[in-house]
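Format notes (please read before filing issues)

Several people have asked whether sequences and structure tokens are stored in separate files. They are not. Every record keeps both together, in the order shown below: the sequence lines, then the token lines. Line labels are part of the format and must not be stripped during preprocessing.
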Amino acid sequence: MFTKPRQTRYSRRMAGQLMTIEEVSHRLRVTTATIRRWARDGKLKAIRLGGPWPEAKLLRFDSEEIERALRAWGEGGEE
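Then the structure lines:
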């Protein structure tokens, strides 16, 4: 019997590659602490693994979201 796979809230949006905090910090040229703060404050959209915020220590970021944020910030605006 075939069962439909359970859909998570991220499965439809996962078009881009996932990036680690370190990869994002290198791309944006800021510290990993800044990336964590921006994720906590909602400035960057993070996928939290291992529990709810702030217990979730493992974060991943959609590369397309990071590039979108870079474009918006470069134009003087924020998402």
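For reference, the curators noted about this record: The chain has one domain: 18-74. The beta strands are 18-19, 47-49, 58-62.
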